[in-house]
Amino acid sequence: MEFDLENPLENFHDLHTDAVSYLFLIESDHTPSQNYFQTLKARDLDITVRREVISLISQLSCTLDPVLSYLAINYLDRFLSNQGILQPKPWALRLLAVSCISLAAKMMKTEYSTTDIQALLKQSDGGGIIFETQTIQRMEALILGALQWRMRSITPFSFIAFFITLFGLKESPMGQVLKSRAAEIIFKSQREIKVWEFKPSIIAASALLWSSNELFPFQYPCFLKAISDCAYVNKESVEQCYKVIQDIATEEEYDESVLNAVSRSDTPVNVLDHHFLSSESEKTKGITVPDSPLRQEKDLKRRKITGYYGNNPTIHNSWIKPC
């Protein structure tokens, strides 16, 4: 059975009470340890190493489904939480990134092989390190041991459908819009270590609440009440996580405003350096100006996420109902 972020466990596609209760019960088994955030926060080296490996994972998977990258980074954080930084050397970090992507690709049953990953790694490094298959397999085994072979990761995506149903929006256009926007926020929030203070269900609830406040502010009080009344959710945790999500979303809006200003300039700006590469360009005032790598990343991920969840339907006033 192919792995699905929204339905991580086999035979749990229906949102009946037992399935939902079980997801909430075991979600902590699929997350980094409770002191992971504090450890990263206290050690600059660990934060730097994590950032470097995430950058490598993003480089090697930027042309693929963002779910694969998300799952690989999930494996990375859970591994680092259990094992810590083994060898903060360039070759070791590359091996860790390749192995996390390889495991995610196998879990999702993609046609993306270790050979493909190696080719991209060689290309990105201008001829960098190529690992033997046995070396990658040994690293994969080490990661699997740290994860206790729990590969069907329970993530915030696992709880989106439950909360959408809680809002009374199951299979509605409004629910699809909230789902799509919350997905963008969740993908983006994975890089922020502060979110690891919270359980996946709390992150999902907070992302949906922010999305509803952003897209349907008149309905926000209804959604907030639905979350607050949910027996599975700690209200204080949601409030704290919401503030983190708010910071992430606000930073995203700032990035977009900067990028819009850059796109209007006739002078190329090189300070917005990023690891995503693309041949796309846009024409401004008759002059072809290459997209900044940061804009390319945002456009690419938005296209992929939209493809994953379907095209966002147009928002109609008829969707907005009183509480």
Automatic annotation (TrEMBL):
Domain Cyclin C-terminal: 154-268
Record domain Cyclin-like: where: 51-145
UniProt keyword terms in alphabetical order: Cell cycle, Cell division, Cyclin
Family matches, as SUPFAM superfamilies: Cyclin-like
Biological processes annotated in GO: cell division
Pfam families with a match to the protein in the record: Cyclin_C, Cyclin_N
SMART domains given in the database record: CYCLIN, Cyclin_C
Superkingdom per UniProt: Eukaryota
Similarity comment: family membership: Belongs to the cyclin family. Cyclin D subfamily.
Quaternary structure and interacting proteins, as annotated: Interacts with the CDC2 protein kinase to form a serine/threonine kinase holoenzyme complex also known as maturation promoting factor (MPF). The cyclin subunit imparts substrate specificity to the complex.
Protein name: B-like cyclin
Lineage: Eukaryota, Viridiplantae, Streptophyta, Embryophyta, Tracheophyta
